[in-house]
Structures are given as structure tokens and as C-alpha cells.
Amino acid sequence: MMQLSTLFFNSSLNFPPKVHSFALSKPASFGSSLCMTTFGDFRVKSEMGSSSSTLLDCVGRENMGDDLVVLFAHLQYACKRIAAVVASPFNSELWKRVGLADSSTTPGAGRDAPKPLDIVSNEIILSSLQSSGKVAVMASEEDDAPVWIADNGPFVVVTDPLDGSRNIDASIPTGTIFGIYNRLLELDHLPAEEKALLNSLQCGTRLIAAGYVLYSSATIFCVSFGSGSHAFTLDRSTGDFVLTHPTIKIPPRGQIYSVNDARYFDWPQGLRQYIDTVRQGKGKYPKKYSARYICSLVADLHRTLIYGGIAMNPRDHLRLVYEANPLSFIVEQAGGRGSDGKNRILSIQPVELHQRLPLFLGSLEDMKELESYGDVRQKINPGYEV
Ligand SMILES: O=P(O)(O)OC[C@H]1O[C@](O)(COP(=O)(O)O)[C@@H](O)[C@@H]1O
What we know:
The chain contains ten helices and 16 strands. By secondary structure, the protein is an alpha+beta fold. The longest helix has 21 residues, at 66-86. Its EC number is 3.1.3.11.
């Protein structure tokens, strides 16, 4: 079968040669205090701090070596392509043009059936990582087993290429999640399949970098190298990810909880009590909480980082290796906590690539209060249809 990404990107039907082009002017200097960009007739002014710089500038400054800069150059390129694909008017054509319903795409046990854009995003990331020459193995939500890429690649990448893809048809935000480890040299002697898996099952405490990319009204690349979490916004006029949220600090308390509360009657007593309490303004923070739930993990987490509160999914649904670990890393680096309702996520040793668990991410004080209710992890998981 033709590669989906090839089909999607090379087709003249999908990308008509005739596109509107606006006169785009590149800002004179990103270092200036006022950055002005022209989008056609619209002039957009943005205040840029003196620290204004791009994602690649910042990766370079982390002093973690040129290999990581090269990897991020490829990763950001992949995410820009995914951003373009999810916003394309031709997404709905994918179902008709490729045979995704055949058995070759049936996922292994414990995995959900992929959507066409999951597969396209997966291919975009895989091909970028392959051409970087810096990645030994990629473990993805979309593959049953990790893919061994290059014996001498210094890094291991775990990823959910397109989280929240069930929202695509309604143009609701989606995101890419990634985590990066060093390749474990002591496993080099093992057969490829075995070392690919063991490299991918590293504990979250060993992450050297992690992040997410939010595809929403803005495309935001949030990353941590273990010294704070920083977010960059895609400037579509230049193609750069520009530093917009340096050293994010999650508020120690928010007034927002984010959960699919249609599952209320499947929740354990502790979680019901916690939500009942904060809804009524009877918790440690004496104000009534509000609910926000996009049902798109990256978007729910991004809002939580900015406004505070807790983003949670109390059932065994989200994956430890490529969802919970990278996002917990980001949250911890922003001063918050990531747990399964009891244990710190980053300290849980993965035993399976697609291992699922309850996930709670958020403000330190809110997380402590939630966990004090003890029993917050949902035991039953009846297989909800939507
Ligand atoms: O159905 P629930 O329990 O509300 O789960 C919703 C969550 O599942 C996700 O869609 C991830 O699941 P998928 O990877 O199967 O799409 C998250 O983006 C979202 O937060």
C-alpha cells in the first residue's frame, strides 16, 4: 500500500498548486522589544521579552550537545507538517482514498483502532526521526512494537504522534506528545527487537527531554530538558517556534478541575467526594471550582499549566510510556505533580509498551488535596463507546 503521508502530501488534489499567498514580512529582529508581523492586511503587534528566541536557539543553549539540536530540528519540522495536515480541508478525503478498514491496520491487543491522521502523523514523525540520523529507536502509540531505526543513534524517542484524534472531525485541538531518553549502551549486544523494547521501557526519571505540541488556534511547542518547562508559539510568517512562555510556573492552586464527569457513577467514593467538595467551594481553597474538559489530553494539560487546577482521567486509559511520563515531566518541571492518584508517575517502572493507568496532573496544592481523599482511582472500566 502506498505510504499515506506520500499520498497526502504529493497529491495535487490534496494540495492544489494554486494557493493564496500573502505578502509576509519577516520581523527585522527577534531580539527587539517590539515584534511586528504583517499577515496580509492585518498587522499584528506582539510584545516580545528581551529573552525572545526560537526553539532551536534554546535547545542549543541547553548545552546538551549538537545531536540533540539536530533531533529537535527534525522534530519541530515534523510537528509543523502535522500542524498543516490537521488544519487541511482535505482530511475527510483520507477515508475514501485509503483502505484503512482492512486487517493490515487492525491494532494489537490493548490498542485502539487508528484514525487516518494517526497513521499519517506517525509516518511523518518516523520519517523525520529516520532522517535525523540521531535516533536508535522510536516507540509509538501507533505501532505494536518499537521500531529499531539506527544502531548508532544516541536517542530513544517515545511518542503519541496525534493525541485526541477523535476530535479532528470537529476541529477541536489535538496534540503530539514525545519523550526522549539516551540509548542504553549496555543493551547494544541484544537482538534488535529486544533492545528496542527495553530501551523504550525506561523509567520516566531517566527522561532527558520531553514535551508536547498543541495544535489549536496557535501551534505551541512546550518542552523541558530538566531545567524548567518552556513553550514556543509557531510564527506562521517565519516558520519559527518563538519563545512565548519561558519558565512556566503552574499556579500552586487553580480553581478548575478537568475530567469526564459523565463517569461519575463509576468513580470510587474518594474521587466523588473530592469533586463534590470543590464544586461546592468547601475544599481547602474556599471557592467554588469550575469544570473544563476538552477531552484532548494535550489541550487539557496546556490549560492546566497556564491556569492551574487538575487535569485527570481516573480510569486505566492513558498510557504510561508515551503519554503520562512525558507530560508528568513537563508538569513537574513547571512545579506541579503527576500521579496515578497515589504514586509519582515518573517513578513507575513500565513493564509493557502500551501499559495504561489513571492519570492526574496539576497544581501541587490541588494534587495534595485530591490524593488526601485516598481512593481516587477508578476500578471499573466498562468500555465506553464515546
Ligand atoms: O474517554 P475519556 O476517558 O474521557 O478519555 C479521553 C482521553 O482519551 C484521549 O482521547 C486519548 O485516547 P486516544 O489516544 O485513544 O485518543 C485523550 O486525548 C483524552 O484526554
